[in-house]
């Protein structure tokens, strides 16, 4: 449109100049007219030439002054036209830049955003929506949004102004996606609705984990509290005269109190580790003495269950840098789990070996084993196996999560090898000497 206006203005200017010149030639004779004709012929092929070349000298009288005023008006008109053209070009450039910037901004947000017509046809999709729905770049536009969701959405019309808030699994995966309406655009020929897509799979899993954790923690708290209350009430009645019975009551109360303390301590320690607020006291740790001490402490638990607890140590075990008390928690949790999930008559073996600049502490058992789909989850906090043989045993699902966090802060790792029905092997790998992790 602007180019057409420019051409039209040029023709008008040329026509005006030509007509004026013709009139002047027909009605006036003399030197000024000859100068006008000469200068017009000089610039006739280029209307964009400098109009100042058409100006006449002041000696040409009134005719020259009138001619010069005409040229000045034509020059002013051309300047206005050029200004309008520049402004239009600047506006178009700015609009293009803003659209490109806005598109890049939408592609950077972590939530999926699509616009759909009243028949659920997708007219726009950002990069997050394409990734969430498992489609390559540009593959969503022109397809129906309802094809990607397992839930039937055909009864909902996105152009009807209904407040859409639906959560459904995707057809191609078990991923849960929440879809909410953002706004309706009525300025277009076909009404469109913007829909925000949010992956809530992990959120639902975390909610399930929290519920599971609260269930198990409640159970863990209820049992020792019930025992403490029962034995305390028995003692308060003063009917027990047998010293052995009295001693048993006191031992039960103390034991259950310690059990509660360990549970609370595990929860607090894990929270501090995850928040980075835990203090790690790095010092030289006599690994051989530490492992032997843990095995000795766990021997009573193994004997009570009828599980053989074996310790295999090389003649020399290297010293490591670490927090002795927290490393003791790691080994206690892993060895304790091995004994807990190994049936009577089974075996738990603890071994140490140095491999290059790393110390490997292995705890192998002949217990229940862990299913492949659960091996990555056992280190998650609050996770409890769905196996009835495991879920029936006391536990909060915090032990391995806490062990993993402690080992991680020491610059090490924990690996797991397991086979259902044949047992599991947990391997704690820690750096030796100066290679130990820096405190976090």
Structural commentary:
With 440 residues, the chain is α+β, with helices and mostly antiparallel strands. The chain has helices at residues 2-27, 31-43, 61-108, 127-132, 201-237, 243-275, 287-305, 324-340, 388-391, 399-409; strands at 112-117, 122-125, 165-169, 176-185, 192-199, 283-285, 308-312, 320-322, 347-355, 358-365, 413-419, 423-431.
How are the secondary structure elements laid out?
Blueprint: H1 2-27, H2 31-43, H3 61-108, E1 112-117, E2 122-125, H4 127-132, E3 165-169, E4 176-185, E5 192-199, H5 201-237, H6 243-275, E6 283-285, H7 287-305, E7 308-312, E8 320-322, H8 324-340, E9 347-355, E10 358-365, H9 388-391, H10 399-409, E11 413-419, E12 423-431
Parallel strand pairs: 7-9
Antiparallel strand pairs: 1-2, 1-5, 3-4, 4-5, 6-8, 9-10, 10-12, 11-12
Helix pairs in contact: 1-2, 1-3, 5-6, 6-10, 7-8, 8-10
